[in-house]
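How it folds
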Amino acid sequence: MAETIPPCANLIILGFVANLSIGGLFRAGLLPSALMALALILTAIVAGRRTAQTAIVEIAEESVASMIISGVAAFGLIALIFGGYRSGFATATEISAFAVAYALAVGWILLREMTWASVGSVMRHAAVRSGMVLFIVAAAQRLAYVLTLQQIPHDIAELLVALTAQHGRWLFLVLSALILIVMGSVLEGAAALIIFGPLLMPVARQLGIDPLHYGIILVVGMGIGLFAPPLGLGPYGACLIGGVRLEDTIAPILKYLGILFVCLLLIAFVPEISTAVPRALGY
């Protein structure tokens, strides 16, 4: 769950719209991300041991030197993205353009794998896949506009306040997490945070919930919703890249989403998972 790993854009967006310390959010997301990563790793190991499929191992024809060069080139792309973004040299969109130019240069000059025909094929596939994803994002943006126009998020916030007054703040935490999961699946992720962050954060403050802790709950809930079938944007992008049918991924992904939801409940009910690091560093 990279949604809580700095410098995730959604943490920056939530910090901006909810008036939270972005540095505090970055640090608050470290332990939750480690918890979810460990849970996913253990789940993958257990699931891998239970599968009946045999592993397909291909013998690599490349030499050790060529593999080292390829690895260094790949890490160079990561350094370009993170270095350019964190230094303020360029925005995330501009850095992506530099990353494309870097990948083309490495593939053409260093690895000598690119040709004019392969470049055309890559561009065509990229345009088709980007167009499909952008159509989904555009539909989500229109839905966000309609929901905002009808003041549905405001009505949901009022309902949460009423239920919390009767049953306590733990119900507020669980229900708001579920709302972000649902809305994160039908809306584009950032839109869900922009709409619900400013509405729910003041309620959380009034209930005595630590803002950094609650911010991490919102971001993790939105991240789970992003991959929740059948409407989540994440599975569509992953299936396009992997070349598999969406229907074939729903059953396998549910166990991972279930594990992440258990982690979300643990993060919600144990605030120290989110607050220990930022409090130790003075946030």
Notes: The two ends are 23 Å apart (CA to CA). The mean pLDDT is 80. The first helix runs from residue 9 to 17.
